[in-house]
Design brief:
Blueprint: H1 2-24, H2 35-45, H3 47-71, H4 78-92, H5 94-97, H6 108-118, E1 125-131, E2 138-144, E3 147-153, H7 154-159, H8 164-179, H9 189-195, H10 207-224, H11 228-242, H12 246-265, H13 272-275, H14 279-286
Parallel strand pairs: 1-3
Antiparallel strand pairs: 2-3
Helix pairs in contact: 4-10, 6-8, 8-11, 8-12, 9-10, 12-14
Signal peptide: 1-19
Keywords: Signal
Length: 291
Amino acid sequence: MKRLLILGFILTSFSSPFAQSDQSELPVENEFVNFNKIQKVLKKDGLEKVAKKKKIKAQEKKDSIEDKKKAFYNTPGGRHFWEIMTQYWLVKNVNLLKWDFHKPEFGVTEYFENFLKEVGYFGLKFKVLYVNSANITHFGFPLSRKDYLFVVSVPFIRAMDLSKLQISLLMFEDLLRLENEQFISKFDDATLLKLMNSNFYKKEFPKEAFEKVLAKYSDIAFNSGFSFKDQFTVTKKMDVILKNNPKYWKNYYSLLEKIDSLTKGNLLYKHYSKIYPSPELQLKWIDPTTN
C-alpha cells in the first residue's frame, strides 16, 4: 500500500511540469492575427509613416490639380478686365467698325508719343487702331492702368484733311476722358463685380452680366456717348494745357471748327454731337474773346 502511494506521489510530481510544458507549446491566442501587435511592428519599421506621407502627397497632388482646374474658370481682375472686354467688343463689332483692312501709315504713333512729352504726359502706353468706317469717328478705350487704345476713323480724318498734330489732339482729348474715368464710370458697379476677380468653377457662367457690359460698350460708343458736363470738363482742361503752346492751341481751335462744319454739312456725321456734345459749344467754351 505504501508503495502504491509513493508511486502515485512520484507520478503526480512529475506530471505537472510536463503538463505545463505541453501547454506552453500551444499557440498564443490569435498570435498571427493580433492587430495590436501588427501595428506595433508597422510603427517600428516606419511603414506607417511612409504610408501616411504617400497619402498626404496624393492629397496634395489632387488639390493641386483641382486648384489648376478651378483657376481656369477665373474671370480677369481690374488690370486685365478692360483689355479683354475691349478686344472682345472690337472682334464682335468688326462688321460695323471695319478695322480689318489695309491700313495707311499716317506716322501718328511716333508723333503722338512726342506730343505727350511736350504737354507733360509720361509713362503712358497706347495703341492706335484705324477703322474704315463712319460709325465711329474717334474713341478711347481702356486696356489696363496707363494703357489705352485709340480708335480713329480714316474716312473721318480724311474728310477734314487733318494733320498729324490734329489727329494727335483728337486722341489727346480721348485720353483726358479716360484719365477722368468718364468711360468706366458709366458701367454699373454691381454688374462689374459679378465679372471682375470672380470664379465660375462648377457654377453657371455670368453670361447676362457679360452681355450687359458689351451692350454698354456699344451704347456709349454708338449712341449715348458723353454728357455736356463730361465734354465741358475735357474741353476746359484741353484749353488750360494747350495755352502753354500757342501752336497746339490754335490747331485745337481749328480742329473744333472743322468738326463743327463737317457735322453740320455731312449727313454721315450727323450723330457726332450725340457722342461728343457739341463742337459748336466747345468753341464757345474756349473762345478767347469771351473767356
